[in-house]
Amino acid sequence: MKRFAVVGFVIAAVWLVGLPPLESSPPPPAAKRINRAIELLEKGQPIYYQQISAPTSDAYETGKKMAGTWADYISYEMEHGAFNIANLREFMRGLADAGPTKSGHQTPAVICTLPVGGLDEFTMKANYWMVEQVLSSGVHGILLCHARSVDAVRYFVRAARYPTQKAGLGQGLDEGLRGAGSQSFASKIWGISSAEYTERADPWPLNPNGEILLGLKIEDRHALQNTELTTKVPGIGFAEWGPGDMHVSHGLTRRRGQPLHPLMAQARDRVFNACKAAKISFLNGVSPDNVTQLLDEGVMISSGGQEAAEVGRRHTKREMPW
Asked: Taking the model in full, what pTM does it have?
C-alpha cells in the first residue's frame, strides 16, 4: 500500500513540474530618482498632482491608501489645513510601507504647502523651522504661498538646504540652514542611508542631482510685482499664479468656466512668461477638454483630476507607468 502512495506522489510531482509557471505581476521598473516628479520633468514630461488636506486622524492608513495614486505627486495642504508634523510623518510612513509605486519609486512624491507666507525676509527667518520640520518628515518638496519678497524666497531656499551644499553660493544664496539629525527619519522614508540623504536632499534644478522640488505661489498683486525676480532665485523649480487669491487680491469675483478678467489674464501671462525666462516649470489647472491645448502652450504641472491626467499623458506619449 505504501508503494502505491509513493508512486502516486511521484506521478503528481512530475505532472506539476510539467505545468507552466503561475503568472505573476511583473516587478516595477527601476526608478532613476527618488522624486518621481523631478524624474519626469527632467525628461520633458508634464506632471499631474492630487491635492489632499492634511489628515487629522488615521494619517498612516491614509498614506497606505494613497500609495497607489494615479498622480505624479501628492499636494499635501497645510496652508489652511492642520500643521501637524506627527500626522505628516505617519502619512509618509504609510506611503512607504505600502510601496513601491508602479513606476518603481519608493513613494509618490509629496509636496507640502505651509501656513507661512513669503511676505518678507523677517517672516521667513522667524518661521524657517517649518521648512526643516516638513522636509525632515520625508516629503519631496514645498510650495511657498504668497511669495512676495525676493529676500523671503532666498531664505526659503536656504531653509531647505544643508550647509554642505555649495551650488548657488555667492549667486544670491547664503549657506543652508538644515541641521544634523534632520536626515534620520526622512532617509528611511526615501529608502536610502542618512549620508546619501544629505547629499540628495537639495533643490533641483539648482543641483542637477537634487531630489527636492521647491515652488512659489505668486498669488496676489503684491507678489506679482516681483515675479521676474522671485522666479529667478536659484533653487526654485516651479511657480503658479494662484487664481483664487489673485482674484481676491484684486477685489474680483472668480467665475469658473468664464473667460478670465483682463487683469487676471495679464497676471497669468506675467507669471507664465517669468517662468519661461527663469527656465522653471509653470503650474496651471487643466480639464479633460483643455489639457492638450495647455500642454502645447507649455504648462508642465497641473491639477484637474485623473481623467485630465490620462488625456495629457497619452498626448505626450508618457512611457512611465502610473
From this structure: 0.90
Is 4 within a domain?
no
Are 189 and 93 in contact by the 8 Å Cβ rule? The answer is: yes
Q: What is the pLDDT of residues 35-90, one digit of tens each?
A: 999 999 999 999 999 999 999 899 999 999 999 999 999 999 999 999 999 999 99
Residue 89, CA distances (Å) to 84, 139, 154 in order: 9, 9, 26
Angstrom distance (rounded) from CA 314 to CA 322: 12
Give the domain extent around 257: 27-315
The answer as to whether 14 is a domain residue is no
Distances (CA, A) of 10 to 2, 4, 7, 148, 207: 12, 10, 5, 78, 62
**Kind and range of the H or E run holding 8:** helix 2-17
Distance CA 320, CA 307 (A): 17
* Separation between Cα atoms, residue 302 and residue 284, nearest integer Å: 5
Q: Is the C-alpha dihedral spanning 164, 167, 173, 178 positive or negative?
A: negative
Query: 245: closest CA among 110, 113, 96?
Result: 113
Residue 212 backbone phi and psi in degrees, to 5 = -105, 130
Q: Is residue 21 part of a domain?
A: no
